[in-house]
Design a protein that fits this description.
The chain contains six helices and no strands. By secondary structure, it is mainly alpha-helical. It has one domain. The radius of gyration is 17 Å and the shape is elongated.
Length: 133
């Protein structure tokens, strides 16, 4: 059964799968944002390790939470995915700069776009993958 009519319609399974992936990404981002706002000792140590002043935790947490919330709203989800990609690109660059593993933010970004692709027929029409040659 299709949830949307027309070209690039999304099946119920794809819509649910995409919604679950998107929700997991958003929850991870919101959890990270809340930790930045609460500033436990581990976050303060992490900021020192990355070379960022502790005072930047609050603005980064607000930006991170805003990106995740924009990503969750169906009408603004593509904008949210673009914003999350930019935020996660900065996280990747920061990890590379200090020599830490860089793949976690990359994987999170890929999962965010995969979830959006599965649940949004507009994105499917922009990125048409074909099953038949």
């Amino acid at each position: 059964m299709e949830t949307n009519s027309g070209a690039g319609a999304v099946s119920r399974v794809a819509a649910w799968s995409g919604g679950i992936l998107s929700l997991l990404v958003a929850l991870m981002m919101i959890l990270s944002a809340v930790m930045k706002l609460l500033k436990p000792a581990a976050v303060v140590q992490g900021f020192a390790h990355f070379g960022y002043p502790e005072a930047q935790a609050m603005p980064l947490g607000i930006v991170e939470a805003a990106c995740a919330l924009i990503f969750l709203i169906p009408r603004t989800s593509v904008l949210g995915a673009v914003l999350l990609t930019g935020y996660l690109g900065g996280a990747t660059a920061t990890n590379v700069r200090v020599g830490d593993p860089w793949f976690a933010p990359v994987i999170l970004g890929v999962v965010a776009w995969a979830g959006l692709f599965l649940r949004d027929r507009r994105l499917r029409s922009l990125l048409p993958f074909r099953t038949k040659l």
